């Protein structure tokens, strides 16, 4: 994804997660899925990354672009730096001024952002500000990413993929530790990622969405799999139905025990989920093995994620994608 070039770093700070090689996670702790959801499930993080992809790298760049307090911006930049997404570099020694440069790990988040933008543009009518245009430099056209399998080259939808937990995958290890990560909004403000945050900006929402992609449909399935209180499950199911992500239908066992099935809108969020999981499992590796494993039904091979341009069918590469604000 093209952005403004950064000036050479004069000095860098030590990172908790080295940005150019995968982080090794300890046994039994939060796995790659939980860490990733904790990062992208924070709306301020997504907004900061959005502008970083457009060239922001200094504190003032984000302050001018976002209605964010100094305290929140400072905390988020420190957290993203500790995660290895940014590298803090001194650019003015006399005043101790720093810039935050996207690392290889940070730049590698571009497929996640593209899929979120594409889903919001296609399925969410109201935004507090306009979404950026995505232009594929190879064909010169505005585009939307097409999710597919790199092993066989064919497109893949949610129903085309099967899988589940791997060696480090349990519900308790995959749920982010924070309870909610939505930014405060003024009355009437829709936000840039309003429904994305409704799906993954709450730890139980993210877990419930993941359970649905693994086949959960009944209330008791969600309750037993996630271990969440019934009131929380009921509230999240109501929100998902209101958003049109789930559709409620009479249950097979009893009509008053409804099933909750993903709608077309819900299934369309699958690429955003899968690119996020793919990023997380490449950059955060548990000692026991991957948290989630998936197979593409059409070819029978492990799913290798590939995004292509819906206009020219070429494979998308970060260096060949421009994100523009007209």
TrEMBL record:
It comes from Actinocorallia herbida. The lineage of its organism: Bacteria, Bacillati, Actinomycetota, Actinomycetes, Streptosporangiales. One of its GO terms (molecular function) is DNA binding. Residues 169-179 have a biased composition (Polar residues). Gene3D superfamilies: Winged helix-like DNA-binding domain superfamily/Winged helix DNA-binding domain. The keyword DNA-binding applies. Signal peptide: none annotated. Residues 25-128, 190-288 form the HTH hxlR-type domain. This is HxlR family transcriptional regulator. The keyword Cytoplasm does not apply. Keywords: DNA-binding, Transcription, Transcription regulation. Residues 1-28, 163-187 are annotated as: Disordered.
């Amino acid at each position: 994804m093209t952005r403004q070039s950064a000036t050479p770093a004069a000095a860098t700070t030590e990172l908790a997660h080295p940005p150019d090689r995968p982080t090794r996670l300890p046994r039994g702790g939060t796995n790659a899925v939980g860490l990733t959801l904790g990062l992208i499930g924070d709306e301020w993080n997504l907004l900061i990354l959005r502008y970083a992809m457009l060239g922001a790298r200094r504190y003032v760049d984000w302050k001018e672009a976002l209605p964010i307090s100094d305290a929140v911006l400072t905390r988020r930049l420190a957290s993203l730096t500790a995660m290895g997404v940014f590298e803090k570099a001194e650019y003015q020694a006399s005043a101790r001024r720093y810039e935050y440069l996207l690392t290889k790990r940070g730049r590698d988040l571009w497929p996640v952002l593209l899929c979120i933008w594409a889903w919001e543009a296609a399925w969410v009518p109201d935004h507090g500000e306009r979404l950026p245009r995505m232009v594929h430099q190879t064909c010169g056209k505005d585009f939307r990413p097409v999710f597919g399998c790199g092993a066989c080259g064919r497109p893949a939808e949610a129903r085309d993929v099967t899988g589940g937990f791997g060696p480090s995958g349990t519900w308790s290890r995959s749920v982010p530790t924070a309870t909610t990560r939505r930014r405060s909004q003024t009355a009437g403000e829709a936000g840039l990622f309003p429904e994305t945050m409704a799906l993954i900006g709450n730890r139980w929402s993210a877990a419930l969405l993941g359970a649905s992609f693994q086949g959960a449909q009944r209330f008791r399935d969600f309750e037993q799999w996630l271990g969440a209180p019934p009131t929380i499950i009921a509230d999240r199911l109501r929100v998902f139905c209101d958003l049109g992500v789930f559709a409620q239908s009479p249950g097979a066992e009893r009509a008053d025990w409804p099933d909750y099935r993903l709608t077309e809108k819900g299934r369309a969020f699958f690429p955003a989920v899968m690119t996020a999981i793919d990023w997380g499992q490449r950059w955060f590796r548990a000692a026991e093995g991957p948290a989630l494993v998936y197979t593409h039904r059409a070819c029978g091979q492990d799913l290798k994620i590939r995004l292509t341009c819906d206009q020219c069918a070429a494979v998308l590469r970060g260096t060949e994608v421009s994100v523009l604000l007209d």
